[in-house]
Amino acid sequence: MTVELKKPTVVGYVDRLYAYPGDEVTLRVSVCEPTKRYRAELVRLVCGETGPKGPGVKEERVASAVDGEHDGIEQRTSFGSHGIVDNLPALGAVAISVLAYPTLPGRGRQALVALGTLRLVLDETGAPALLVGDRALSAGVALRDQWWHRIEARYDPATGAAAIAATPFAGLHADRAQSAEGRLEAGAAPSGPLFFAAAPGPDGGATEHFYGKLEAPRLVSGTVDAQWDFSRGIDTARIEDVSPSRLHGRLVNAPKRAVTGSRWDGSVHHWKLDPSHYAAIHFHADDLADAEWKPSLRFKLPERMKSGFYAIKLTGSSLPFHVGLIVSPRPGARCAKLAVLASTVTYLAYANYRRRMSPGPFELAMGTLPTVDLTDVFLAEHFEFGHSTYDVYRDGYGVGHSTFRRPLFNFRPTGRFWNFAMDLCIIDWLDQQGIDYDVISDHELQDRGADLLSSYRAVMSASHPEYYSSEMLQAVEGFLSRGGRFMYMGGNGFYWRVTFPPAWPGMIELRRAEDGTRAWEEMPGQYNHATGELGGLWRRNGWPPNMLFGVGFYAQGFDNSSYYRRTAASCDPRAAFLFAGIDDEIIGDFGASGDGAAGLEIDIYDRRLGSPPHGLVVASSENHSNAFMLVNEEILSNRQGQDGAQNPAIRADMVFFETPSGGAVFSTGSIAFVASLAHDNYRNNVSRLIRNVVDRFIDPQPFAIPKP
Amino acid sequence: MLRNAPPIDPARLDLAAEYRAKPFGRHSPDLQALLNVMRRAENCQDLILVSIAPNRWVLGHREPDGKPPTLFTDQVFDRLEDGEWEGFKRRWRALTGQELVLP
Predict the structure, then answer these.
(1) What is the rounded distance in angstroms from the CA atom of residue A421 to the CA atom of residue A409?
(2) Cβ contact (<8 Å) for A383 and B66?
(3) What is the pLDDT of residue B1?
(4) Between the CA atoms of A333, A335, A339 and A342, what dihedral angle is there, to the nearest 10 degrees?
(5) Cross-chain Cβ contact B27/A357 below 8 Å
(6) What would be the CATH architecture of the domain defined by A10-77+292-330?
(7) Which of A215, A397, A590, B6 has the fewest CB atoms within 10 Å, counting from its CB?
(8) Residues of B with CB under 8 A from a CB of A
(9) A370: nearest CB among B26, B27, B48
(10) Contact criterion met (CB below 8 Å) for A559 and A526
């Protein structure tokens, strides 16, 4: 059988994740097919790929300046982190030393320090070696991974005399020191730029990237005695030479800082308390902060366009590629009463998720086979587009950075029914209902704070707003404290802290510290972000989601979804508006995501974690499958009988409560919820319930907190 | 298979029939135990389902080191459930040495 396998041949990215009508947008495109031609068009995304039980993809073409056929090029992506000192004086005989903690020795040649053709490397076997051109002086044998070593080398270009030594740090299981002396090619004058953790590449870029941590590099030559102290400027992209030479450098592609160094002994756990314990930088050949493609098109968005989820749709000879973009009202422009808050930070955390394509017992966690599409397969063919924060680097360490300055493979209406694609169910439903709304975004919330929300009576979250910064939470809390109404339309929201490192525009940082349902585990001593904030769960940082939204993450399962059963509290007069016109006891026993409204990741009301005492649990789900498991943070020690088939506590709670100043919160507690809105041509009890909430939440009549 | 892993009983066609009828959702304890064996790293065959077009799927094999999956394009499924069932049959065959044929 011949099967046609269509994959994208044109990919791209824009310089922002949200824009206003009339804004100029810079589009960067790479054409991976011989014609080097592509078509671009602007589309408003109305509904995503829902599978057979939903409406399916709906998009509307919007005439714009980007429309048409264009010439393109295949762009090169600069990936792999390293340091560079651009301006060096003339050098003669040199002595180089550096502390190295390799995390993947033996995976190709990896440069520790490079000065033109002179390179101090770990060779293909993982052994330290000094190279001049193609000739090498090896210290002997491979370095042990996950161990600190002092590497020292000397080279005299006048004679070719060279020496190298590697001395492991002391420890119970330390290897022996090793060294060698010999002659390399004479006359190869060491020259700048100086590279750390990589070597200059043939095309002006970098090559031979190092996997591991480097600390305290030193270069001595004539009157130069440069000593770079990586404990300085940890929250920056600079590396500082503390010698009188002041040969400062810069970092490329965001290697990880605020990591434990050779002095770290467990006596300090925050880099700001004693930076000398954090004088290392962890480099990876698969780091990416900015793909640095050449601009392809600069164009203005139409001056008049509906706020919403948009994409620049790029098409070559095969499958289209969507470059997602949120278009929001310009500050000061007329606003709707209701705003949908697109969770662009969470989309970014998930961007370029590769792990589903990795070997392993995936189904023991998910309950189904992993599913991907051919756009994901194309991503797997392009390692240079970087990872998601769910992936690990090739050395097994977790990826805590994600940038939008690269092609993003999940800001699209197709593919996994999750996040961006699933959130379009909200847009489709609002359009069907004829409700006036704006779409705003996490990134705009980060930039503008509570001011962004102040124009709206009600804000509706996306289906899975998992990643939040402290600034974003403060903005939402401020909105609620001033009488705003919030509809939390999903599950596992407001869970992990993220930060926006000022040194790396377009990037978020995440540290999966200490607890939580985690794709990887942050290393001990490294729980604080480069901004200084303590990473990890918001429930461990004084701000459990229950406090603001009434519910917090409790269980997950991905094979199918279940339904809610109304509780006695649903008959409370305070909740009467919710169920107006709904006589059913069972809510949401249908839907495009697993045939039910309660599924995927689900939340519960929990007073221990700050759910307000007057919160009404108006419905709870039940009858979940064996695949649903308690989240890690609810388990102190393993115990049997905790899956959805055996533990009746595994459920999603639907919660309503009033807030001071006349506001209110309604939470669904389930990611799958929004995928039920369109069932039976939008005539169903989930749709009616949400319509009731919207109508009341945009009504200025204040809510009143019940008297105790 | 690890020596201490519970075996799959090729006579338990009732469990295969249960899975075929309902691959997603709540399973009987015996079926769940069987699935847990099949889904262990050493038994799962690193299968993956790849959508090649709306409502068209093929099975594939996940490759190490982030490489693209190898696709088995000799069979195309119109429903995810059918792809899951084919995966179940492959694992049954590997673990029992017998073809899975339901009446």
Answers:
(1) 11
(2) yes
(3) 47
(4) -20
(5) no
(6) Sandwich (2.60)
(7) B6
(8) 23-27, 32, 35-36, 39-41, 44, 46-55, 57-58, 62-69, 71, 73-76, 80, 83-84, 87
(9) B48
(10) no
- Helix extents (H) in A317-386: 344-350, 362-366, 374-380
- Residue A364 sits at the vertex; the CA angle it makes with B9 and A361, to the nearest 5 degrees, is 90
Cβ atoms of A622 and A649 within 8 Å: the answer is: no
A257-261, Cβ contacts within 8 angstroms, sequence gap of 24 or more: A257/A230, A257/A281, A257/A282, A257/A530, A258/A234, A258/A526, A258/A528, A258/A529, A258/A530, A259/A213, A259/A523, A259/A526, A260/A523, A260/A524, A260/A525, A260/A526, A261/A99, A261/A213, A261/A215, A261/A230, A261/A231
Q: Tens digit of pLDDT for each residue in A362-390? A: 999 999 999 999 999 999 999 999 999 99
Chain B residue with Cα closest to A53: B55
Q: Measured between alpha carbons, how far is A448 from A479 in angstroms, rounded to an integer?
A: 13
At CA A618, angle to CA A615 and CA A621, rounded to 5?
A: 120
For residue A516, what is the enclosing H or E element?
Answer: none
Any idea where the domains of chain A sit in the sequence?
Answer: 10-77+292-330, 82-283
Identify the sign of the CA torsion A546, A551, A552, A554: positive
Residues of chain A with C-beta less than 8 angstroms from the C-beta of B80: 368, 371
For A280-305, the pLDDT digits (tens) are 999 999 999 999 999 999 999 999 99
Q: Which chain B residues are closer than 8 Å to A49 by Cβ?
A: 54
For residue A1, pLDDT beyond 80: no
> Which residues does chain B have within 8 Å of residue A381's beta carbon, measured at their own beta carbons?
68
Asked if A358 is an interface residue toward chain B (Cβ–Cβ < 8 A), one would say yes
Task: Quickly list DSSP for A208-251.
Answer: S---EEEEEEEEEETTEEEEEETTTTTTSSEEEE-STT---EEE
Pick from A107, A369, A373 the residue to mutate for testing the B interface (most B CBs within 10 Å): A369
Q: Which of B35, B39, B73 to substitute to test the interface with A, most A CBs within 10 Å?
A: B39
Average pLDDT over residues A145-165: 97
**Average pLDDT value for residue range A338-352:** 98
What's the CA gap between B17 and A121, in Å, rounded?
Answer: 58
Nearest to A342 by CA among A439, A242, A214: A439
Boundaries of every domain in chain B: 13-96
Confidence at residue B4, expressed as pLDDT on a 0 to 100 scale? 56
The answer to whether the CB atoms of A357 and B64 lie below 8 A apart is no
Whole-angstrom distance, CA of residue A240 vs CA of residue A225: 13
ipTM score of complex: 0.96
pLDDT tens, residue by residue, A467-521: 999 999 999 999 999 999 999 999 999 999 999 999 999 999 999 998 999 999 9
Contact state of A370 with B44 under an 8 Å Cβ cutoff? no
Cross-chain Cβ contact B24/A381 below 8 Å: no
Q: Residue range B4-10: average pLDDT?
A: 75
Give the gyration radius of chain B's Cα atoms.
14
**Residue spans of beta strands (DSSP E) within chain B:** 47-53, 56-61, 70-77
Q: Which residue has the tokens 């707003």?
A: A465
Query: Could you report the per-residue pLDDT of A34-81, keeping only the tens digit for each?
Result: 999 999 999 999 999 999 999 999 999 999 999 999 999 999 999 999
CA distance B98 to chain A (A): 22
